[in-house]
Backbone:
């Protein structure tokens, strides 16, 4: 699936975001190496810390479908500049990224776009590789 379609999938699921508190809808879509696409949106909660990010929703959908590798990610929001994943989501994405070179495209609703690798977003990341002796 080309990058534009991944962004389109993120844009579409964003509409379903449950954001009564922030009013800030976010959509995320990811592609696995076998070409499957999973998407998620943010889901907030009256107990604010219990809200979940769009990226976390997309990852949960992927894992529930029995896939554990991410080849590419797109995130979109109605922000002045391309929306960047929060720190926690960078770590969550890193867990399943095929490599540090995995591209994360951040987009705005009006067509702004920025692509960085997960290693650029989370340099020096702690990852599953560090636990190989455990
Ligand atoms: N949010 C995401 O879902 N993903 C991001 O990459 C940035 C922030 C959500 C969390 C919360 O529901 C709202 O955006 C405002 O922080």
Residues:
């Amino acid at each position: 699936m080309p990058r534009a379609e991944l962004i389109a999938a993120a844009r579409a699921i964003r509409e379903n975001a449950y954001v009564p508190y922030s009013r800030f809808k976010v959509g995320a879509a990811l592609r696995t190496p076998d070409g499957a696409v999973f998407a998620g949106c943010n889901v907030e909660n009256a107990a604010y810390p219990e809200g979940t990010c769009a990226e976390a929703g997309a990852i949960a959908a992927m894992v529930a479908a029995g896939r554990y590798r991410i080849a590419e990610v797109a995130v979109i929001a109605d922000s002045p500049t391309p929306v960047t994943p929060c720190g926690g989501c960078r770590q969550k994405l890193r867990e399943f990224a095929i490599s540090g070179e995995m591209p994360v495209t951040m987009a705005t609703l009006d067509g702004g776009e920025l692509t960085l690798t997960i290693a650029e977003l989370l340099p020096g990341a702690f990852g599953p590789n560090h636990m190989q002796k455990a």
Observations:
- The domain at 3-131 is CATH 3.40.140.10 (Cytidine Deaminase; domain 2).
- The helical segments are 3-14, 54-64, 87-96, 118-121.
- The radius of gyration is 14 Å.
